[in-house]
Amino acid sequence: MQRAQFEEAVEAILKRDKRYDFQAYVFLKDALDFTLRRITEANDGEHRHVCGTELCEGFRDLALHEFGPMAATLLQEWGVRESGDVGEMVFHLIEEQMFGKQDTDRKEDFVGVFDYEETFVKPFQPKAPFSGALTAQVVS
Asked: In 3-state terms, what secondary structure has residue 5?
């Protein structure tokens, strides 16, 4: 897929649906590439179709790897607030003929794959509240 062609497809999507930022679609394409590589490596070099669950897991894993504690903030700015949003973007790209689809693929396959709070927020919160008092010491 040519970069310019992909960008034109995303621009066409954004004209009719502004829920997701341009960068969310770019990241989704990167997440698909990441997921395809992971599946191919695990499958002795054989390519196969990526299902919705696998793509959501790849999206999640790549976001955590690339953005760490900033993933929650960044994804929220891009309009991605749940795994179902990944499916919405995938089906937009299918409509623009940028992604392929099998007859068994459905938007529902992406729903509930990961919990946004559990995945992107809670792991980066302090484990226990600070209970000690801060004291300043003067060194002379």
From this structure: helix
Residue-wise over 89-104: b if at least 16 C-beta within 10 A, else e?
bbbbbeebebbeeeee
Token pair in block for residue 64: 């955590």
Cα separation, 31 vs 3, in Å, equals 15
| Among candidate residues 36, 37, 64, 49, the one with its CA nearest the CA of residue 120 | 64
Alpha carbons within 13 angstroms on the beta-carbon side of residue 43 total: 12
What is the torsional sign of CA 17, 18, 19, 25? positive
DSSP letters, 91-136, are: HHHHHTTSS---TT--GGGGTTSS-HIIIIIGGGS-SS---SPP--
Of 91 and 1, the one with more pLDDT: 91
Per-residue pLDDT of 34-73, as tens digits, reads: 999 999 998 888 888 999 999 999 999 999 999 999 999 9
Cα 125 to Cα 130: distance, rounded to the nearest angstrom: 12
